[in-house]
Structure formats: C-alpha cells, structure tokens
Design goal:
This protein is mainly α. About 75% of the residues lie in helices and about 0% in strands.
Length: about 190
C-alpha cells in the first residue's frame, strides 16, 4: 500500500534529522537520506527543493519537539526559578549521558554554517534559540523573577556554553558547574 504524501514527507524529515545529527549537514548526502526514508531521490526533491530547504524543514519540525522537551525538563510544578533551573540541568545531565549524544543540533548547524549567515537553517536556528529564550523569560516572569529577560539570557549562555564544552572535552563536570552558576543567578534575581 503506497504511503500518503504526508507520511512520505515525515519519513524524509526523520531520516534527514537522523543523518544530519549523526554526520552533520555537509557530510550528509541526499542519496543516503532518500535510502533511509525508503524513497527515491526524485521523491525527496519532489518534497524539498534542495538539501538546504530540507535542513530548514528539519529544523522547523524539530523546533516544536525541542520546546516540548524543554517544557518537560522544567518541572511545571516548580514554584520558583531555582527549582525550575535545577530540573532543567538535571534533565540536561540525563540527556547528555545518552549514547550517541552529539550536542544541540541547532547549535551544531549554526557553527557548521557560520560562514553563511543568510542560510535558511541559520534563520531557523536564530528563530528557535530566540523562542527558547522567550520561553524561559515567560516562565521566569510567571515565577516573579525580578529581571526575567536577563535571567533567561544568562541561562541560555550557560546552557550553550555547557553544550559546547561538553562536546569539546566530554567532561560532564561542566553540567554541574553551569547548574551551580545558573542557581546563583536565579537566587540573585529572586532575593
């Protein structure tokens, strides 16, 4: 029985996500993605006009999934910013301990395509990171943090730095250090 157009599109997106995450954008070929999705290259290009457009679509799809993950990480029952941050960093520690962890796909794409600021994937990454920061600011605002936008920006810096240093050194102690720094910042904003 033939797959529906939407089912085919989702299979391509999933195969592309896995390939891009595992190999990076530049080392991923559309032949491998098509094969993993069980489609022809022509079918892939029928759904996505280029590899660049496919990457942008993958990131747009992942955006919603990542926001859902962050919402799960940040304990919805948290009654203060410190508890929220503790939940986030505890979940980060679990995530990075998973086999095959290669960091934030959005951040890796931004680094890989750093010489192409107008690339659709860079645009998707900027939009995603801004949305994540806004999500934190909204949560902190709801928890009566004094300067929610500032705390959200500082948490983003700590998370991104933590992910990058974990990729470079492979040392999970960076999570504990970032978590302690985030906790101090949250305590400063809630005193």
């Amino acid at each position: 029985m033939p797959r529906s157009r939407e089912t085919t599109r989702q299979a391509i997106l999933q195969a592309a996500y896995e390939q891009f995450y595992r190999e990076g954008f530049n080392r991923s070929g559309v032949d491998a993605i098509a094969a993993a999705a069980s489609v022809t290259k022509r079918t892939l290009y029928d759904h996505f006009e280029s590899k660049d457009a496919l990457l942008a679509a993958v990131l747009d799809h992942q955006h919603g999934l990542v926001l859902e993950r962050i919402a799960r990480w940040a304990d919805p029952a948290a009654t203060d910013a410190v508890a929220l941050i503790d939940g986030v960093f505890a979940s980060v520690a679990e995530w990075v301990a998973q086999p095959g962890w290669r960091g934030s796909g959005f951040s890796r794409v931004a680094v890989e395509l750093s010489n192409l600021p107008g690339h659709p994937a860079r645009t998707a990454t900027r939009r995603h990171k801004a949305a994540v920061e806004a999500w934190y600011a909204d949560r902190f605002r709801a928890l009566d943090v004094d300067r929610p936008e500032l705390l959200a920006r500082e948490i983003m810096l700590l998370l991104e730095g933590c992910f990058l240093l974990l990729l470079i050194h492979g040392d999970p102690a960076y999570i504990a250090a970032a978590s302690a720094a985030a906790r101090s910042l949250a305590e400063r904003e809630t005193d």
